[in-house]
Amino acid sequence: GQQLNQSPQSMFIQEGEDVSMNCTSSSIFNTWLWYKQEPGEGPVLLIALYKAGELTSNGRLTAQFGITRKDSFLNISASIPSDVGIYFCAGTPGGGSEKLVFGKGTKLTVNP
Amino acid sequence: KAGVTQTPRYLIKTRGQQVTLSCSPISGHRSVSWYQQTPGQGLQFLFEYFSETQRNKGNFPGRFSGRQFSNSRSEMNVSTLELGDSALYLCASSLRGGAAEQYFGPGTRLTVT
Questions:
Q1: Could you report the per-residue pLDDT of A20-40, keeping only the tens digit for each?
Q2: Which residue of B has its CA nearest to A6?
Q3: How many CB pairs (< 8 A) connect A and B?
């Protein structure tokens, strides 16, 4: 359906490590967005992807729109303590729907 | 540019009451979407308004309603509050609406007792 399965649910890493998280769906998505949310705040847009195969970077963050249009991943290189937060994938399903569907989030903890 | 603002930031209400939340989008943005965020269900889409018209609607009961004014500011109303309505309510604005990039406000934390 139009659900997004985001994994892992949580990650505990050491500062300096690279991080990878992904989002999958059983149906096609036309857009993939990655957001980060910190406690007490709304989600902040990190990267937006609009074409299958698209690879986009934003500083230490890199995200890709899967070639099948059913998945996306986000990588964070050389993590730092301020990377802590919950990362959400979101997308708009195919079939003309423009409602944004969100994954359940990946909670990232970075140990200094 | 100023970001998306939401008022109030925190609210405590009693079951059966109604509540109105307000959202001011980024200047120039004509679309405002509302989301409910809970630990169990995550972020769920409520509805989207574009140029004062509701353009998309999620699967929430009719107790949840909204409107948008000519200056693009939006309000969301929840009537006959239930305990399960306790959540963080987020609004997001975008230039074109729909699949376009959305920018979120800090949210209104609603607690229903």
A1: 999 999 999 999 999 999 988
A2: B42
A3: 51
